[in-house]
Amino acid sequence: MMSFSSLPAQTYQTVFAYFRAEMLHCVEKGGTEKDLIDTLKEYVVAAADIDAYFNFYMDIFVVILASLFLQKDKFLREIPGLLRKFLFDGGEGFDIESIDLTDRAEASNTVAGLLTRDIVRRQTRLKDDFSIIVSNASDFKNLVPLQRLYLLSKQGRNYLSGEFKTRLAPDYSLIQTENDLGKIKSTLLENKVDIVEMVDICSLDDLLSYELYHTLKSNMLIRCCKHCGEFFVVRGRIDTEYCDRIKLGENKPCSIIGATRSYWGSKEGDVIYTAFQKAYKRMHSRQRVKKITQTEFYEWSEEARRKRGECEAGQISLDDFKAWLGNKR
Length: 329
Description:
Low-confidence stretches: none
Number of strands: 4
Oligomer: single chain
Helix content: 55-70%
Radius of gyration: 29 Å
């Protein structure tokens, strides 16, 4: 759920573009329905790990592309209903009936645009609701997260109205269709099979509702990352302020980048640390060009940190510390 709320637009737009291009290419070369499905299946498999919620979007787009490809009245007539049932707001504000489904290029482009807009709207609503769940605003003062979620469900959040069918089932596939009680019993004992709760999820909204409810029921903390601004579930230390995502355009997770920038921000104006860091960079450069050995650099850095500690404790003056740093060339 948190992954979906922060899914980059570039990711899903690229996937939609590939799917659409393959359908049009299949039309151009006179391929069959099987050719199209086989090709799209490869993309679905490759993109399946992007996000569980995005899989719902891929599924409906593949169904619609196949219908556009075939151009059979029976399938084309079903497209508007599929979209109205799937879209977050039922397609409100857009005349789905006006889409020219006989124009494969234009129709597929329009549907891709609708799905893109829908992802953005779902992400926006989720982030708004996450903000309310973690908010300190007076309107929700003294309300625990689950109470806040209930209030949201009473304020027109259709995605929170899912009804779930649950059942007991073994986490061992070989006996899920077995009816002989003797065989079931022996298999349970021999394989130490666990019995788990199985939930039937019929739609994307069902999954959102179920996951959000159980996240809060389990007392998991939701927090907004101080680096990327996206929401995440806190794991480990409860004072964690950064998520483990790698923000688009960066090569390290927020937990590393954010903490490093926070640390350096706390050192801004610290004359002792500034003097140490300036000397550290100078000595590190000398080690890189082999004017000193790596061992000499490590020995110097350990001693420099000890001297820095003495300066911070007032045991030596800043001028003496700077003089020591300057003399160690």
